[in-house]
UniProtKB/TrEMBL annotation:
InterPro entries: Carboh/pur_kinase_PfkB_CS, PfkB_Carbo_kinase, PfkB_dom, Ribo/fructo_kinase, Ribokinase-like. Pfam families: PfkB. Residues 3-297 form the Carbohydrate kinase PfkB domain. Residues 293-318 are annotated as: Disordered. The keyword ATP-binding applies. Coiled coil: none annotated. Keywords: ATP-binding, Kinase, Nucleotide-binding, Transferase. This is Fructokinase. The keyword Cell inner membrane does not apply. One of its GO terms (biological process) is fructose metabolic process.
């Protein structure tokens, strides 16, 4: 079972300068939970939602795809909003968000993986509680820890201020997915590959960098992979990275590489297995990009799309 911890909110999406905004359920962790559920995985989302119309919209959307929603303390809570302005299909965000998830109990014994990231690991007071959960679960050693910084510069101060907390979370994690856009903001003078290597040295067995049209770069202690981008019919990029993360975790689960007892096996993942997992995650993200909003595919849709697309990749021995 997957547990995802983090924000669920409503994306108000429209073209830049438009007076018309369309409400879509969103939030990076919520999108990951949705993507996992649609791929057939059992998943619980631990989040914070208000008892308002937006909260009802988000909760109904997630539950319809099979996500178990734990909405957190609701006294005075309002469901958070993100205004997504689109230009040439690419989204920029303005946030109206509250993040106070309350105390987090230990994960259920059947959990194999916990995923978090984005605003849930950056905004007080909830971020400190999420970090404590990961520290506790790393010490227990029972689950795979997955992390996507998914940075929002407008809410993080300067890169120098944001880096220590992000690097600490990387050190607690087993799987780290990060975009090249995030890395350019965090480390403007360093190459993606160099940062990925440095994060590997912090303790994460697998670091994956998504590069948009340039494809995907991944590194373990024994392997580097450079995969080309998947061709897409772009509508917008809302939720694409989260769909990739869901596909990545689902693929690792199907390869029996999740759970604390599989940590060494994850670190030793072979080339063909990693190519297969990354290739499918990229395909899943491309399907999301082909339709509006954070609308990840079902497993049946993935199988249909996969039949029309060969898997390719280039590896660099270590």
């Amino acid at each position: 079972m997957f547990v995802v911890v983090g924000e669920a909110l409503v994306d108000l999406v429209g073209q830049r300068g438009s007076r018309t905004l369309v409400a879509h359920p969103g939030g990076s962790p919520a999108n990951v939970a949705l993507g996992l559920a649609r791929l057939g995985d059992q998943v619980t989302l631990m989040t914070r939602l208000g008892r308002d119309s937006f909260g009802e919209l988000v909760s109904a959307h997630l539950k319809a795809s099979g996500v178990r929603v734990e909405a957190g303390p609701d006294a005075g809570a309002r469901t958070s909003l993100a205004v997504a302005s689109l230009a040439a299909g690419v989204a920029s965000y303005d946030f109206r968000i509250e993040w106070d998830i309350g105390d987090l109990a230990p994960l259920p014994v059947e959990s194999r993986c916990v995923h978090t990231g984005s605003l849930a690991t950056a905004l007080a007071p909830g971020a400190a509680r999420v970090t404590k959960l990961l520290e506790r679960e790393r010490e227990r050693g029972r689950v795979t820890i997955s992390y996507d910084p998914n940075v929002r510069p407008a809410l993080l101060g300067t890169p120098e201020e944001a880096r220590p907390a992000i690097e600490h979370l990387v050190s607690l994690s087993d799987v780290v997915k990060v975009s090249d856009e995030d890395l350019r903001w965090l480390y403007p003078d360093r190459r993606d590959e160099d940062v990925a290597e440095a994060w590997l040295a912090l303790g994460a067995p697998l670091v994956v960098v998504t590069r948009g049209g340039k494809g995907v770069f991944a590194v373990t202690a024994h392997l580097e992979l450079d995969l080309p981008a998947t061709p897409i019919d772009l509508v917008d990029t809302v939720g694409a990275g989260d769909s990739f993360t869901a596909g990545l975790l689902d693929g690792l689960g199907r390869a029996d590489l999740l759970g604390g007892v599989r940590r060494d096996a994850l670190a030793r993942i072979d080339e063909s297995s990693l190519i297969s997992v990354l290739d499918e995650a990229s395909l899943i993200a491309s399907i999301t990009c082909s339709r509006p909003g954070a609308d990840p595919p079902t497993w049946a849709e993935v199988e249909t799309a996969r039949a029309a697309r060969p898997s390719t990749g280039q590896s660099i021995p270590r």
